[in-house]
Amino acid sequence: MNAPARIGTMPAPIVSDGHQRAAIEVEQALLGAILCHPEGLGFAERHVMADDFIEATHRELFARFLQAREQGRAINHQLARAFLADFGEAPLVDGMNVNQYVARLYAEATGLLNVADFARTVREMADQRRLAAISEQIADDVRRGADVRAATLDAIDALDAVAAQSDGAAVRQVSLREANQISLERMQFAIQNPGLLPGLSWGLKSLDEKTGGLKAGELLVLAGRPGMGKTALGVCIARNVARAGDPVFFSSLEMGAVSLSDRSLADGAYQRCRPIPYYAIANGALSSQEAERVIEAARVQRDWPLKIDPAPGLTISQIAGRARRYSQALARQGKRLGLIVVDHLHIAKPSNRYAGARVNEVGEISAALKALAKELDVPVLALAQLSRKVEERDDKRPNMADLRDSGSIEQDADAIIFVYREAYYLERETAATAEKEAARIDRLIDVKHDLETIIAKQRNGPTGTVKLFCDIGCNAVRDLEGL
Pseudo-torsion of CA 114, 118, 123, 124, nearest 10°? Predict the structure, then answer.
């Protein structure tokens, strides 16, 4: 390990000397408490990370404490002296040598009961410095005449990272006993309320029965090739959840808000014997009676809590930030976000961390969506594209190997559902003989409105295929039962 910087140094002058001195003193008190009470490390790490320490030596010392614990070594003054001895004979601060500085840590130590508060203070001061650095970067962008939109998006990314890390640091650890109690209470509630879903309803009974609904904290991936109906099903699910009164945040990276509205209206006005395609709504190719049905559909869904964010080209951090702000706005109204939909995962922009390494980029996006589901305690439904390898097979039903660009999706997702419409391929084929052509047409008539949802993975339930009715031109998806 490289020798750390001297006490009292900072990487950049972004805060006052007073802040720097106060931060160092709080860090000394925290590190001293851990030396006096090694069990305090567990309390501290719930709130603070090594990168939160302003002083490089303190960062490395805290990291050494964590490393020593993992290796089963004692955290004591000998460990601290061995690390600080890397400085050789040079004084550390105020002319102190190693022994004197370790004694300073002990002298400044807070009590065990105050470790969590001091750790939170270290974290808060670190976040203040991060905000100061962001503000300096914004000011520098203004001075340089940087592109306003690019600078703004960069600032939003950076600010959201601070907010997300702060939220994550506040997540409370849970003992097995507490988790068991929650499990038993949930089990008892389910026994007393037979038929009640543990999650939000998909609005499709057959999917509810197979999955138990959309469960809070889970990442569900809805994947398919273009034309298979994944957006149709995604919009249908969002409408159903909003219709039940649960707020939905729909990040539409691919399609504009008005295009989604056309599809929602076509679904709302749907009658099997008299369908109104969404392209007819967009073009105004409607009879007066059809127009009245569309207007009535708009009236019915006018107050549904479905927020559409049609901004294109967002990074996954920006999507998370917008969803988080909507969730916070709902909380101020005494409401709770029910569902997040992202259409679609492969269009979301990654950070620059893995620039050019597409597999790692997609893995970063899927991991971020899973983290968002856990952070906000809501289901996140992410639509995803499949690779072209599907088209090369005779049986074009997708499988896990068809997930595009990353096996991380399979790892991060709690459920993976593929959508498949045989009619899509039959409509685009031409048989070699008249007999085969007749068979193709007969088959197309039989499966024209079939939508297969193939549950290929479900962490907390069975796999299998659920068949639904789908009029793709009207964005209408229904249970087969009851049609």
Answer: 110
Cα–Cα nearest to 473, from 254, 229, 203: 229
- Distance separating alpha carbons of residues 119 and 41, to the nearest angstrom: 10
Residue 478 · residue 204 · CB < 8 Å: yes
* Helix orientation angle between 77-84 and 56-70, rounded to the nearest 10 degrees: 130
Q: Prior bond to 77 cis, omega within 30?
A: no
Residue 13 pLDDT exceeds 50: no
Q: What is the mean pLDDT of the chain?
A: 82
Sketch the domain layout of the chain as residue ranges.
17-169, 195-479
> pTM for the full model?
0.67
The better pLDDT of the pair 337, 11 is held by: 337
pLDDT given at position 167? 52
Count of other CB atoms within 10 angstroms of residue 82: 11
**DSSP-assigned states of every residue in 439-478:** HHHHHHHHHTTEEEEEEEEETTS--EEEEEEEEGGGTEEE
Architecture of domain 195-479: 3-Layer(aba) Sandwich (3.40)
Contacts of residue 297, defined as CB under 8 A and 6 or more positions apart, other chains included, come to: 264, 265, 267, 268, 269
The answer to whether domain 17-169 has CATH 1.10.238.10 is no
Cα 54 to Cα 41, 90, 122, distances in angstroms: 18, 21, 9
At 97, the amino acid letter reads N
